[in-house]
């Protein structure tokens, strides 16, 4: 049995669909509120058993771990949380998962981190992810940590959020600095394939694996590519990152589901790259290129409407 936490996030949803399609027995842990809110939207709801509970509830965790050999721990506050949320969901939540997994003698825990994660990082998100990595490594469980580049796909938060922000201003796009930091985007299907193959690949046990797609690109290049694909051209204005960070903090208080969050600036603060051949070398996967892929679902998409719907939402929690 495989247990998945963070089942309603992008990676969780697609991983569950893939595991179910491949015939793996899967179980999910979902809060009662999330289960009710998502009930009509989950394509796997009738086939996948769900334990109603929380990563902070020891009783539901114990029930969820019965007969489990692998845990994909994907629950995170990375896109919507402030420091206290990252401490509570990512750090404390992971500690709770590990305690329950050790008690149930689970074989392995697989988690997703970020390229650039380090417990001593000056940036909140990367520091929290680095601390989570340390907890996993010292857990006594067999583990695999994936340090991933920015994930893109039809329902991703980062790149689709970028497209919405570009639409928000009819003339300008405010870019943090000169957008020179290198990113290493990875297509969601390639990440899912790597996660599934890691279960059978013994070389990934007790390893931290850095992965990304077939190309590096700066944030400026990413923004220009999104403009080109969506036919939404804007003048790019370089703004000091600290000013945009402060401005974004105000916007997220006014509009809790504003597409950009302070965590964006943590991701863009430094180069975040892995070896270009990482997916092929570790898993035999030939990854998809960024522009070739986003053109299949971005062209003609109504991002103005998506932005307006986001502004009316009361929280970002459904994007975790």
What structural keywords apply?
320 residues, alpha/beta, Rossmann fold, seven-stranded parallel sheet, two-stranded parallel sheet, 13 helices, 13 strands
Question: How would you describe the overall organization of this protein?
Answer:
The chain has 320 residues and is an alpha/beta fold. The chain folds into two domains: 2-149 and 185-211, NAD(P)-binding Rossmann-like Domain (Rossmann fold); 158-182 and 215-271 and 289-319. The protein is 44% helix and 17% strand. The chain contains 13 helices and 13 strands. The protein has helices at 10-21, 32-38, 58-65, 83-103, 124-137, 158-168, 188-198, 219-230, 241-254, 262-267, 278-283, 290-298, 303-312; strands spanning 2-5, 26-30, 50-52, 70-73, 108-114, 142-148, 151-152, 172-176, 182-183, 186-187, 207-211, 217-218, 235-239. Strands 3-2-1-4-5-6-11 form a seven-stranded parallel beta sheet, sandwiched between helices. Strands 7-10 form a two-stranded parallel ribbon. Strands 8-13 form a two-stranded parallel sheet. β1, α1 and β2 form a beta-alpha-beta unit. α1 packs across α7, α6 crosses α8 and α8 packs parallel to α12. The two termini are 24 Å apart. 45% of the residues are buried. The model has no long low-confidence stretch (mean pLDDT 90).
The CATH homologous superfamily of the largest domain is termed: NAD(P)-binding Rossmann-like Domain
CATH class of the largest domain: Alpha Beta
Q: Could you give a short account of the major beta sheet?
A: 7 strands, parallel
Radius of gyration: 19 Å
| H/E topology pattern | EHEHEHEHEHEEHEEEHEEHEHHHHH
User: Could you name the ranges where pLDDT drops below 50 across 5 or more consecutive residues?
Assistant: none
Shape: globular
Total count of domains: 2
What is the helical fraction, as a range of percent? 40-55%
What is the CATH third-level topology name of the largest domain? Rossmann fold
């Amino acid at each position: 049995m495989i247990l998945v936490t963070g089942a309603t996030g992008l990676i969780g949803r697609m991983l569950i669909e893939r595991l179910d399609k491949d015939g793996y027995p899967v179980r999910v842990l979902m809060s009662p509120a999330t289960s009710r809110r998502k009930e009509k939207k989950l394509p796997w709801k009738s086939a996948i058993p769900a334990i109603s509970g929380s990563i902070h509830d020891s009783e539901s965790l114990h029930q969820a771990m019965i007969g489990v050999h692998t845990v994909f721990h994907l629950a995170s506050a990375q896109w919507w949380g402030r420091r206290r949320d990252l401490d509570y969901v990512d750090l404390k939540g992971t500690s709770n998962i590990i305690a329950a997994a050790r008690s149930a003698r689970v074989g392995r825990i697989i988690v997703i981190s970020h390229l650039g994660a380090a417990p001593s990082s000056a940036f909140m998100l990367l520091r929290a992810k680095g601390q989570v990595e340390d907890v996993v490594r010292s857990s006594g469980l067999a583990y695999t940590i994936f340090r991933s580049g920015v994930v893109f796909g039809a329902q991703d938060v980062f790149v689709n959020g970028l497209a919405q922000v570009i639409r928000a201003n009819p003339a300008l796009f405010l870019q943090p600095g000169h957008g020179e930091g290198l990113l290493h985007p990875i297509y969601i299907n390639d990440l899912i394939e790597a996660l599934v193959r890691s279960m059978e690949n013994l070389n990934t046990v007790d390893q931290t694996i850095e992965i990304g797609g077939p190309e590096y690109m700066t944030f400026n290049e990413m923004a220009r590519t999104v403009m080109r694909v969506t036919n939404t051209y804007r003048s790019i204005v370089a703004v000091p990152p600290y000013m945009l960070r402060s401005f974004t903090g105000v916007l997220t208080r006014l509009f809790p589901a504003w597409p950009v969050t302070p965590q964006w600036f943590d991701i863009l603060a430094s180069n975040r790259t892995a070896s270009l051949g990482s997916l092929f070398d570790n898993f035999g996967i030939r990854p998809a290129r960024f522009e070739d892929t986003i053109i299949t679902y971005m062209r003609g998409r109504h991002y103005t409407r998506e932005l307006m719907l986001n502004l009316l939402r009361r929280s970002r929690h459904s994007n975790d």
